[in-house]
């Protein structure tokens, strides 16, 4: 599998297809394989790159601070190294926040961004829980804290049990220093400032269970295009890929390629 090295850190990625570029950015404790249905679908018409963020998947996992801006800088650097001109940046969960941070910091770079159930706009009342979770991730029982948190928050009663267990096992393999620091990075990200400044077309697709954020999202980013998947949990790009792919296709046709 190909990789590029930035500041001594190997960043792995997969590539498929040709045409207008799309880059796929996975979520917290996840990896590039979590966009496999989208890469398979869009590579028929696009050059698709799925990345392993630093600390995740096959990429190196140094002891360092993991921030949303840092992830965004890596993605922007990869776009430059791979010659991706005006890519559509698709991010899930933490990857959605990363896509937003990239669009805010580098308005010249993305043609558009797609945020799939992104890790943004958390209510203030969740802060005590966030602090408690970070402490749990740093504890000797960190992997079990990840599993219990993800199992309770990211899936529904209709989620496929085999897929759920596969995802949970993968998430728990992420080193705890990455888990805790990246979660802190999500909590510290100034998503409201980024939403106010973004100029690229934006698609936001939410899932169940959800945090009600659409109203605030529209206040901060009035031109955002919104959608919602049916009968799916947080990993809707894997649970109901046909729904997600269709919404991205429609968004590209109407907001980007029109």
Overview of the molecule:
This protein is 45% helix and 16% strand. By secondary structure, the chain is of the alpha/beta class. Helix 3 (94-105) links the parallel strand 5 and strand 6 (112-116). Helix 2 packs across helix 3 (94-105). The chain is globular. The N and C termini lie far apart (35 Å). The mean pLDDT is 96.
Question: Count the strands?
Answer: 8
β-strand amount? 15-25%
The helix content, as a percent range, equals 40-55%
Summing up helix and strand content along with how strands pair, one would put the structural category as alpha/beta
In the predicted model, the low-confidence regions spanning at least 5 consecutive residues are none
Identify the overall geometry.
globular
Major sheet size, sense and barrel closure: 8 strands, mixed
Q: What's the helix count?
A: 11
Question: Could you spell the SSE succession in H and E letters?
Answer: EEEHEHEHEHHHHHEHEHH
* Measured distance between first and last alpha carbons: 35 Å
Question: Keywords, please?
Answer:
8 strands, 258 residues, 45% helix
Brief overview:
The chain is an alpha/beta fold and 258 residues long. It is built from eleven helices and eight strands.
Topology summary:
Layout: E1 3-6, E2 9-16, E3 21-25, H1 36-42, E4 47-51, H2 68-82, E5 88-92, H3 94-105, E6 112-116, H4 127-137, H5 142-153, H6 161-172, H7 176-188, H8 191-197, E7 202-206, H9 214-220, E8 225-228, H10 236-239, H11 241-256
Parallel strand pairs: 3-4, 3-5, 5-6, 6-7, 7-8
Antiparallel strand pairs: 1-2, 2-4
